[in-house]
Amino acid sequence: MKRLTFTFDNGPCPGATDRLLDFLAERRIKATFFVIGHLLADPDRRRLADRAKAEGHWIGNHTFSHATPLGVDGSPERVRHEIGDAQCQLGALSHPAKFFRPNGGGELGPHVLSGAAIDYLKEHRFTLVTWNSVPGDWKEPHEAWFARALADLDKDPWTVLVLHDEHIAQMTDLLERFCDELERRTIEIVQDFPAACVPIDRGRPGEGLSRLEPANAVR
Ligand SMILES: [Zn+2]
User: Fold this and answer.
1) Per-residue pLDDT tens over the stretch 114-142
2) What average pLDDT score do residues 29-38 get?
3) What is the 157 CA–ligand 1 centroid distance (Å)?
4) CA 166–ligand 1 middle distance (angstroms)
């Protein structure tokens, strides 16, 4: 049976994450929210992350500031800030496997992580979680994510879909139709990740790490 994992990035966003959580509860779907560390300093946003965790979703680290990708500017100091300080912000919200997802405009490649970042993730036993479907819900026209996500379902036996709280929460009608389509195609919605999207598993190198490794590592 084919599978699909929902992930929601760049939150928490008041007015969006709450709507999305209502939707997921109604459909009995469990997902992972990759949150931006500095946003958690805002009590309203932290409350949303707390609610997500309480409702059975997993919370992952999506950098402290979501600024320049770590493969472009990834000195050891910046790595400690973007990964380590974000992890401190997450604190008890974090899944025990310490999920980390880098930012990089939806593309996977050496621009997402420096050598120092890969070393840091291994040393501090993070689990690096990537993706294989980024249908671009932030791009106009926003609704176009739907057709792209459906097309992506044919690519892999297990899809890890990246959507964004802020945008997808405005399109729960389409999300509803997407879930109906998954049912129609007997694609199972699961919460965990395929090995192909876990290049580092609790510090151990796994599948696909080599294509993220910089040719000239900054160490
Ligand atoms: Zn992001």
Assistant:
1) 999 999 999 999 999 999 999 999 999 99
2) 98
3) 24
4) 11
Taking the centre of ligand 1 as the mean of its atom positions, its distance from the CA of residue 62, in whole angstroms, is: 7
Confidence of residue 219 (pLDDT cuts 50, 70, 90): very low
Residues flanking ion ligand 1, Cβ below 5 Å: 9-10, 103
Q: How confident is the model at residue 214 (pLDDT cuts 50, 70, 90)?
A: confident
pLDDT of residue 216: 44
Residue 164 CA to ligand 1 centre (angstroms): 8
Tokens of 41: 């300093």
C-alpha of residue 8 to centroid of ligand 1, in Å: 9
17 C-alpha to center of ligand 1: Å? 15
Per-residue pLDDT averaged across 61-65, rounded?
98
Complete domains list, the chain, with CATH: 3-209 (3.20.20.370)
With 0-12 / 13-18 / 19 or more C-beta atoms within 10 angstroms meaning exposed / middle / buried, residue 216 is exposed
Could you tell me the distance, in angstroms and rounded to a whole number, from the CA of residue 103 to the centre of ligand 1? 5
3-state secondary structure of 98: coil
Q: How distant is the alpha carbon of residue 213 from its chain centre?
A: 19
Question: How far is C-alpha 57 from the chain's CA centre?
Answer: 12
Residue with tokens 């609704």: 143
